[in-house]
Here is the input.
Amino acid sequence: MGGIGEGDGRSAGPREQTAGTAPKAQLSEDAVRVFRWVSDQGSCDVRTVGATLGLPENCAASAVRTLTDLLLLRHVPEDPDRLVPVAPDAAIAALIAPKEAGLRRQLAEIDQLRGELALLTPLYTEGRRRWQGRPALTEVTDLKTVVGMITEATMRCRREVRTCHPGGGRSPALLEQAFVRDRDMLRRGVRMRTLYQHTARYHLPTQEYARRMTAEGAEIRTLSELFGRMVAFDGETVFIPHQDDLDAAIVIHDPSTVAYLCTTFDHAWSLAEPYQPAWTESSARDEVKQAIVRLLAEGMKDEMVARRLGMSLRTCRKHIAEIMEQLGAASRFQAGYLARVQSSGPAATAPGTA
Here is the structure.
């Protein structure tokens, strides 16, 4: 339909209108009056429509603009000042039908997407049923079963394993067994992060294990104290020791508990130092001594301090003797107190020998 939406530059002339783009204009009483009158007359002169109907010029111009936007009036190509009416059905076909077609396409796409996603519902339901059927926490009391479950989890692991080993170094036999298993994981592209206590830097078999593992791509760090022993696979399964049985373990599948333990590991990891075998003059040695002082100040016995820091009682007492000599303390508690005073300033006076 030639000429629809072609303006002539006049203030009361029509605005450009693309077929299929519905305007936001609404029919006013003035627009209805103009359309009825033009329909009765068959045509009108855009310059005189307002005066003919007794409408103010701006109201008449707004009404004509609305009607042309809605494709209910069109200019005669031979006489741009003359308007003729257009059947509302034709305006509907030009303005609304394209939008309806677009909506139908969108609905078809939505139905297709809904159908494709619905195909996955049985898979999710089946998997959910398996997860819900598996207990969030399993107690395994047989050592061979524990080892077998860890081996199986190691073989299934695809992304990352986090291991936390409090205490001193492990036995050479266990380290060799772990090396073969862990090396295979690393070569599959699994990230491996291991936390030891600083005291593991003393242990020659652990030093060799750390050297071989880091060469394969493992990451190893140490802290003076660790939160507990655990092994986490892919952020989905965590093994922790049984508190009453050294040969038993607790296997955790609950997502919230697993996420909490992995976050705890990540926090400790951010505070830890990269493993270095030779640490006589390192900051790790100072950190161990600071931990000893802090635990002594809390009133812990030598045996408990040694256990907390993963060292032998003999090594612990050697460190304590060095600390007491450096501080001039006559007792372990006084050593802890003097160390706190020195770290906070000379505001307090050391008490007498406890």
About this structure: Residues 72 and 86 are 5 Å apart (CA to CA). The first strand starts at residue 44 and ends at 45. The domain at 136-274 is CATH 3.30.870.10 (Endonuclease; Chain A). The first helix runs from residue 29 to 41.
